[in-house]
Write a structure and sequence with these properties.
Largest sheet: 5 strands, mixed, barrel
Distance between the termini: 32 Å
CATH topology: Inorganic Pyrophosphatase
Radius of gyration: 16 Å
Order of helices and strands: EEEEHEEEEEEHEEH
Number of strands: 12
Number of domains: 1
CATH superfamily: Inorganic pyrophosphatase
Structural class: alpha+beta
Low-confidence stretches: none
Strand order of the largest sheet: 1-4-6-10-7
Strand content: 25-35%
CATH class: Alpha Beta
């Protein structure tokens, strides 16, 4: 029996075993960890590659888009250098938020995402960029080429979610700040830097 190529005898690690995407830095693969329907924060286990429960949502705020990671990226010194005030990268794969018209209610899926911009999130001095993308073949959003073309309310919801998703009810101060939204051109610089950081950290 001839197996199709590529064929994986074992499940590939979502961070290290999947390709970064068909046309990086503009069209990427996104491995989805959280959907807009999740009241629990799930996160990839770096050792096994399986999705694990990080914590229940602390507030009533839910992610307004699909949320996951870009394979074979790493937020290291090159990525941190692109964000004002960042001392280091957060040492995780690059985060990505993907807008889709049709509800996608399950996580642990891989999709093609076309980059349109990002949010420069600084978490305790660590660069923690949130790339914003649209589902590549989405019938409603596929013509969007830059984050400025998205509804302002949607981007505001993303900003609010990331400013509050770690905040305990009743708390007023925390170490997360988010600067002005950046467009596709800068987002692609961040992605290139994170790919270089990954190659330096883990090898090509």
């Amino acid at each position: 029996m001839a197996f199709p190529k590529p064929f994986y005898r074992w499940r590939p690690h979502p961070w290290h075993g999947l390709d970064v995407g068909p046309k990086p830095p503009s069209v990427l693969h996104a491995y989805i960890e959280i959907t807009p329907f999740d009241t629990v924060k799930y996160e990839i286990d770096k050792s096994t590659g399986y999705l694990m429960v990080d914590r229940p949502a602390r507030t009533s705020s839910l992610p307004p888009t699909l949320y996951g990671l870009v394979p074979q990226t790493y937020c290291g010194p090159r990525t941190a250098a692109l964000m004002e005030g960042a001392e280091v990268g957060d040492g995780d794969p690059l985060d990505i938020c993907v807008v889709s018209e049709r509800p996608i209610s399950r996580a642990e899926v891989i999709l093609k995402a076309r980059v349109v911009g990002g949010l420069p999130m600084l978490d305790g001095g660590e660069a923690d960029d949130k790339i914003i993308a649209v589902l590549d073949n989405d019938y409603l959003w596929s013509e969007i080429s830059d984050v400025a073309e998205l509804p302002a309310a949607l981007v505001d919801r993303l900003r609010h979610y990331f400013l509050t998703y770690k905040l305990m009810p009743g708390e007023q101060e925390h170490e997360v700040t988010i600067g002005p939204t950046y467009g596709r051109e800068h987002a692609e610089k961040v992605i290139r830097a994170s790919i270089e950081d990954y190659e330096h950290e883990f090898g090509g």
